[in-house]
Design goal:
Structural class: mainly alpha
Amino acid sequence: MKEKRLRSLVALGVLPMALVACGSATNDKPNNQIGNPPGGTAGNGPGPIGAGGGTTVPGGGAGVGGIDTPPPAGVCKPGIPVTTQIPMMLNRQYASVVRDLLGVTDVGGAPVADLLVGDANQMTNAAWKVYQDVGAKIANQVMNGGNKSKFITCQPSAADCLQTTIKTFGKKAFRRALTDEEVAAFMTLNSATPAGTPDQVAEAILNAFLVSPSFLLIPELNDTPEATAEAPDAVKLSPQEVATRLSFLLWGSIPDDALNAAADANQLSTRAQILDQATRMIQDRGRTGAFIATFHDDWAQMNNSSAHWFKGKHDVTKYPDYTDASAVANKKELDAFFEEVAYSGGSFKELLTSNVAFVNKDNAVYYGEDPAKYGAELTKITLNSTTNPRPGFMTRAGFLSSYAGYAQTSPILRGSYIAIWLLSIPVPAPDPSFAMTKIDGTYTTERAYIEALTQMNQPCKGCHENFNSFGFVMENYDAVGKWQTKDPRGGDLNTKVTASLGKDQPAKEFSNPTDLMNAIADAPNAKELYAQAWVSFATGRAPNGNDQCTVDALKGKLIAGNYPILTLLGDLTQTDAFRLRVRGAL
């Protein structure tokens, strides 16, 4: 069937292409017309817990290079925050869902997520056109490829085949059973004129599913009350809605058969039942591992377009080991590192102190390894903490080469990153006129040059003196991340500093990266930021008083120590805000 013909079938019952609002926090009626564009300007606020935010949390002020700083700690206000009932799937979630539903990972050679518009949680005419185009291409690819049986397992011309397919596939796609009215609406595609072949009709039905609001959105429409002391007007999620929250939180995708069975048996009502399923799902490393890596990419600001991650290149005359392929390997290594720390029972501390590395032929040289020993795939190794100290993710080549200059290290970039994103120490935006300043003279170390440069400008001096110190401790790593014992300028390295890790914290002496990373790993403000990042990412919400109570609870466990990341992930499912919602204006 030609694309125009397919579109005409999908368009049956479509409202005019004006945007329709379907995000109201008080609207409990689903909008399930086939092909009706979801979205509009209403309801474009943050999604419910389980949304897996994936966006940088709004900041509290401009930092170095225009990067927003993390929001300040709030005050716990017991209760359940108001959220939109029908957020849109994020691009990465859409990609995961069509992979799990239909086995589709790319269309025309391009990853599915790359074909979509930005994660704005609203639908415009242009975005709607993109979803229609992508849906039509996926439907055609499935019906004419090896994954056809993932959608339909009978002959489309056989009696009841299409209706059975609509019910069985629809339950997975919509994360709930379809109503009789919805089944009948999809079946109208079998009686359109001019008539299509049974295969063409099946393709049109699949296309219709992929552009349905009940697929693209994550509705929460149950209205069964369940009052709590802090939220007397709370509404209980249905078992299917809880299952969907769990699956989108932990997998970024649809529930599996076991989770659907638990929902159908009403076994997702209590915290214990929810935790049982969460624990089972977390142990599926193939699915939850990717989510954990994605979260840590956000926490580390790799998804922040204002950050320096993987943007700069390096002078190959000074650093002949640097290649574009090494940058790719460095990014993959960090994702593997974050996942490995979590699945080896690690806690927040190990993110800052683990000596585990992942190397291949492209990045092994940065760690003193022979590239000839490795192939294209990453291999897990444990680095020698004495001869080549590598405590945590900030001593991996991915961070070190990103936060460095073209032909030299950058104590300012490395130090400000630590101050802003690990310790929440305010760092004002630099004076643009000073940012490009250079000074003449003979300096035998990069540290001596930076100290002289920042001493010139008195307004900058006080701020730089503290956060530059964090960068000076990291000077044993060159601009591409290799260990160095001599400054390229010719002098002996001096990594000894005295610095404070935060407001009201006494200054301490640090002389090497291991001392600094251990101190950050124990810092209460670093743990607070980590807890806040988890809550905001998991809920898709900006920090607020209600969620601050969860942040405080997680922070307490992090401070107590030996709190595995996987346990923290399960604890995110145990709040009232996970299984309940409240109505209200956003």
